[in-house]
């Protein structure tokens, strides 16, 4: 990519190069719009029907066209052909569209793609998160488990989830996420239902392991799928919708648990068994439906059961070209191509992404133990099984608003590290309070209120997940980096399961002091990541600006640097 592409990847709209389709007059060749004659009128470009196609003020297709430089365009045309990129036939460096067209198309993508992604994430969270509701019943007693056994089960699940992350990505990249994700959902739903047959600790551990293996990789698989349809600036807010589904699932699962536990003893079956059976059945239905709701790409929505597809030919062209102009590397690999060992090694050794992986390990630990132990804590301080499940709803509702707000702020100010760090700034004072307050446990409602405030924290996962995706700058690398980031999150989850221990209950003073230290470390890591990427960008600016135009063009055409290692790439921070 040349200097124009550098500006477009910096995330700063004011630095982007404005280029018209003919370079000067801002006139679009008439053959680009079904042969309609294009004329200028009061600054507007209109069709012969008088419908506004674009304006110089609002036409985003003209303001970020990195392919306006013929040398850059030719370089990427060859790349897309060599990679057999599935959307290459609609690539058009001269295509224009209005801001109104783009907004309408994005809304359609939100309803068709993002909404179903949220529903699929609901199925994941329902089956992996309902253990919190199950232990509010008689599960631990029936299986003769104690707190440490519960911790070990969570550790086994998280470790299995972690181990499966990268293999799942490799399978997904080979056969396509549109095939692999529905298969995952159906398979883990069967295991989720089989938990109703557990009778011992070994069965508990075995189903935890199987569930983790089958669910591992789902999140980076889905993030990769979403990246096919959204630009780097749009992806974080869509991921915030994605993670909002987690909170919505928490509310729905609490209400479901409240109702399902009323089946306690029906046909001689415990309430927690009914919970696993019925919720597993719900997610299995979602898995089957997903085979019909996930297109392979933007240009592959037409099929035997959907003959007209979701998008018109023009919408397909706009959708593909706007994505490529935001990030030309998205066409460097087809969606059903396996990741080679060389590409895998290159992704694993991309040390410039390690600061984000370090964040993944640390920043979600402070909230994890209080969340895992919430229903157990509420039961221990006197709340009934039914009330314990209902009391998880208020903070979950607040959590939705704080999550969406922090993600919106990150996009508004084009800041990731300095906005995402507010997650830890929120949790730190509450953790200090829980570590020193003498009324913990004895004050029933005070304990609940403090925990609820803690768990209402602004979740920054959407920001950081989109951050690592954008900073990968390559489809293959993005598959690997998304997996490695999620693996780092799971590793942090494993660490979190050992913070609250049996010998520290019921106050968990030692555990909360540990969480305070980890919280402070996380704040430091955010500041380090910000400083690191600013420093790297300054070094690359200095090297790039020292090159002549000929040297820059030669680098674009011939450099073997890939992904985030390219000298003409700038890290987001």
From TrEMBL:
<feature type="transmembrane region" description="Helical">
    <location>
        <begin position="445"/>
        <end position="468"/>
    </location>
</feature>
<dbReference type="InterPro" id="IPR011701">
    <property type="entry name" value="MFS"/>
</dbReference>
<keyword id="KW-0472">Membrane</keyword>
<keyword id="KW-0813">Transport</keyword>
<feature type="region of interest" description="Disordered">
    <location>
        <begin position="1"/>
        <end position="28"/>
    </location>
</feature>
<dbReference type="GO" id="GO:0022857">
    <property type="term" value="F:transmembrane transporter activity"/>
</dbReference>
<feature type="transmembrane region" description="Helical">
    <location>
        <begin position="386"/>
        <end position="410"/>
    </location>
</feature>
<feature type="transmembrane region" description="Helical">
    <location>
        <begin position="417"/>
        <end position="439"/>
    </location>
</feature>
<keyword id="KW-1133">Transmembrane helix</keyword>
<dbReference type="GO" id="GO:0016020">
    <property type="term" value="C:membrane"/>
</dbReference>
<feature type="transmembrane region" description="Helical">
    <location>
        <begin position="274"/>
        <end position="296"/>
    </location>
</feature>
<protein>
    <recommendedName>
        <fullName>Major facilitator superfamily (MFS) profile domain-containing protein</fullName>
    </recommendedName>
</protein>
<dbReference type="InterPro" id="IPR020846">
    <property type="entry name" value="MFS_dom"/>
</dbReference>
<dbReference type="Pfam" id="PF07690">
    <property type="entry name" value="MFS_1"/>
</dbReference>
<feature type="domain" description="Major facilitator superfamily (MFS) profile">
    <location>
        <begin position="113"/>
        <end position="573"/>
    </location>
</feature>
<feature type="transmembrane region" description="Helical">
    <location>
        <begin position="209"/>
        <end position="229"/>
    </location>
</feature>
<feature type="transmembrane region" description="Helical">
    <location>
        <begin position="515"/>
        <end position="535"/>
    </location>
</feature>
<feature type="transmembrane region" description="Helical">
    <location>
        <begin position="480"/>
        <end position="500"/>
    </location>
</feature>
<dbReference type="InterPro" id="IPR036259">
    <property type="entry name" value="MFS_trans_sf"/>
</dbReference>
<keyword id="KW-0812">Transmembrane</keyword>
<feature type="transmembrane region" description="Helical">
    <location>
        <begin position="344"/>
        <end position="366"/>
    </location>
</feature>
<feature type="transmembrane region" description="Helical">
    <location>
        <begin position="241"/>
        <end position="262"/>
    </location>
</feature>
């Amino acid at each position: 990519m040349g200097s124009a592409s550098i500006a477009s990847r910096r995330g700063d709209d004011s630095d982007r190069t404005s280029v018209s389709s003919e370079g000067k007059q801002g006139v679009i060749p008439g053959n680009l719009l079904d042969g309609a004659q294009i004329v200028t009128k009061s600054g507007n470009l209109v069709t012969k029907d008088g419908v506004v196609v674009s304006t110089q003020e609002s036409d985003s297709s003209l303001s970020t066209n990195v392919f306006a430089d013929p040398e850059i365009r030719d370089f990427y045309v060859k790349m897309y052909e060599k990679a057999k990129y599935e959307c290459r036939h609609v690539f058009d460096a001269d295509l224009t569209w209005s801001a109104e067209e783009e907004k309408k198309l994005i809304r359609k993508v939100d309803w068709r793609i993002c909404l179903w992604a949220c529903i699929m994430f609901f199925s994941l969270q329902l089956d992996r998160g309902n253990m919190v509701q199950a232990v509010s019943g008689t599960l631990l007693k029936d299986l003769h488990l104690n707190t440490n056994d519960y911790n070990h089960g969570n550790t086994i699940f998280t470790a299995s989830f972690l181990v499966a992350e990268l293999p799942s990505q490799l399978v997904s990249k080979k056969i396509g996420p549109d095939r692999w994700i529905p298969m995952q959902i159906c398979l883990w739903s069967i295991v989720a239902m089989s938990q109703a047959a557990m009778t011992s600790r070994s069965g508990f551990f075995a189903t935890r392991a199987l569930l983790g293996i089958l669910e591992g990789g789902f999140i980076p698989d889905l993030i990769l799928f979403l990246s096919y349809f959204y630009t780097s600036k749009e992806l974080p807010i869509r991921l915030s919708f994605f993670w909002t589904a987690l909170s919505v699932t928490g509310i729905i699962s609490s209400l479901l648990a409240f109702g399902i536990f009323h089946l306690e003893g029906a046909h001689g079956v415990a309430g927690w068994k009914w919970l696993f059976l019925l919720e597993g059945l719900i997610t299995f239905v979602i898995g089957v439906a997903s085979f019909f709701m996930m297109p392979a790409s933007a240009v592959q929505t037409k099929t035997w059961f959907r003959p007209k597809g979701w998008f018109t030919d023009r919408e397909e062209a706009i959708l593909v070209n706007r994505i490529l102009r935001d990030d030309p590397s998205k066409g460097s690999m087809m969606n059903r191509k396996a990741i080679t060992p060389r590409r895998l090694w290159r992704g694993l050794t991309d040390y410039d992404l390690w600061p984000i992986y370090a964040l993944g390990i640390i920043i979600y630990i402070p909230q994890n133990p209080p969340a895992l132990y919430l229903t157990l804590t509420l039961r221990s301080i006197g709340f009934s099984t039914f009330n314990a499940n209902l009391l998880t709803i208020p903070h979950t509702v607040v959590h939705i608003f704080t999550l969406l707000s922090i993600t919106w702020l990150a996009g508004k100010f084009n800041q990731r590290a300095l906005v995402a760090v507010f997650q830890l700034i929120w949790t730190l004072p509450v953790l200090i309070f829980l570590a020193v307050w003498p009324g913990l446990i004895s004050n029933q409602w005070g304990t609940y209120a403090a925990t609820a405030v803690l768990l209402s924290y602004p979740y920054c996962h959407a920001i950081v997940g989109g951050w690592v995706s954008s900073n990968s700058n390559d489809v293959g690398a993005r598959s690997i980096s998304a997996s490695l980031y999620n693996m780092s999150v799971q590793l942090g989850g494993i660490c979190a399961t050992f913070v609250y221990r049996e010998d520290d209950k019921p106050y968990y003073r030692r555990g909360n002091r540990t969480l305070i230290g980890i919280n402070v470390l996380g704040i430091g890591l955010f500041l380090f990541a910000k400083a690191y990427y600013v420093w790297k960008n300054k070094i690359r600016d200095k090297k790039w600006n020292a090159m002549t135009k000929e040297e820059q063009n030669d680098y674009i055409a011939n450099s073997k640097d890939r992904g985030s290692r390219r000298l003409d790439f700038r890290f987001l921070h």
